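In the present case, backbone shapes were mapped to integers, as reproduced here:
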Amino acid sequence: MSNLSKLTRYSTFAGVLILTFLSMLAMFGWSGWFVLPFIVFAALSLLGLNDVRQSAHSVLRNYPVLGHVRFLMEKIRPEIRQYLLEDDQEEEPFSRDQRSLVYQRAKGQEDARPFGTKKRVYEGGYSWVTHSVHPKHIENTNFRITIGGASCAHPYSASIYNISAMSFGSLSGPAIKALNMGAKEGQFAHDTGEGSVSRYHKEGGGDLIYQVASGYFGARAEDGSFDPDKFSVTAQLPQVKMIEIKLSQGAKPGHGGMLPAGKITEEIAEARGIPMGEDCVSPAAHSAFSTPIEMCEFIGRLRELSGGKPVGFKLCIGHQREFMCMVKAMLKTGIYPDFIVVDGAEGGTGAAPLEFANHVGMPMVEGLTFVHNTLRGAGIRDQIKLGAAGKIVSAFDIARALALGADWCNSARGFMFAIGCIQAQACHTNHCPVGVATQDPLRARALDPDHKSKRVARFHRETLDALGEMTGAAGLSDPSGFLPHHLMQRLSDRSMVQGNKAFPYLPIGFLIDEDAPDHKGYKDRWSRASADTFSPPEYA
């Protein structure tokens, strides 16, 4: 970190210390009236010293004295917000209300709100869960599912709400450790992201989902190809419970990445298995397979190399036909993934081209619905568990995803907020003000894993408690009972439609039954899909 950056962060505190010293000199050498400014500046100096030493607030640790301005604005915001936002102004994409919900639950604060909803219930897109006049009370909200098919020797009992993929390198070491410690305390899983298993994951001791992306970090040969021996060592770590092949991510599907040599620390190089002093490239596509059948064979190979742990893949839906190619390859080879995670285009990242973030990839609701119905149509939905990711933060978000076909959900943004992210959008600059998304050791030091991990576990627990209340209100005994008809959605013309009309479950086996009627063009795409190639028919 540059000296200028340090000076900027501590300039207010340094200024207060200087003014304390000057006012003391003036008090003794000029006039006793300077005792008043001396008291004020001395008090601020003591406040700054306490800010540097405390561990509860990363903002104050990185910005002593000055950081209190943010907390002041946070306290008065509800009173001034009506003057800052006119009725016709839009909320930001990830609303303040959603962030506030995470902060309140992570800190164990009351999240109830007076005066009802602030949502515009008469506008298009507003959705809600239908409730029962005979609600149920659910005591145990530790909702779990078992992931692992017939070919899996070590199925995993997973929480239905887990930490989505965020790599060490994108996040700081203390942030990774805090997340993983929280996952251990709350008994849920933490996806490593493509940066592999770092020492901070290991120190946390929580369950891991090891993500294998196109760079094959943690399983990488010197030429960047897949190394089965290195993969086996990483995958068979006791902490690793599942293996996830990343085909694409919602924020930038179809786009590779590069970590410049200047940003690669020794710790990052160790975790990823890459040399120092060279740019680290993540290709847009995998080199270990190039056809749907080869992909299925790769899944089977990873399952064997991992000792029989659940293996699946994550993707954001692009060409729908290509996913059908994968399903046809599953049917042809008899090799099925244990799970599939559907990431929505609304998913986040530390840095992505604006056009990709806004206009490439299918949103989570549509992508999840398509994958769920394709698997149903192929008659294999019961053999594969489905995860969903993409701005899933609240109990309603989880309930909606489960109703549309998911078995569990992952969240990145929600858990980032739980460890103190303030959405400063400085992830790509290495200047994260709270030590979450930075490799600057001094900035990262502001984040105390012991303290923040408690917030991670508390946010998870209270969100599932809220899901239990919502499930009971719908008259259900378990959130797995949510179906599309439990959802309602308002259309743009102020009419409303039931979820099973907007997102219906299509008939089981209709894609492989020649006599079954088509549904929404699924059979047309299915007829053009091939297990042997991802290329469209005209180029096959």
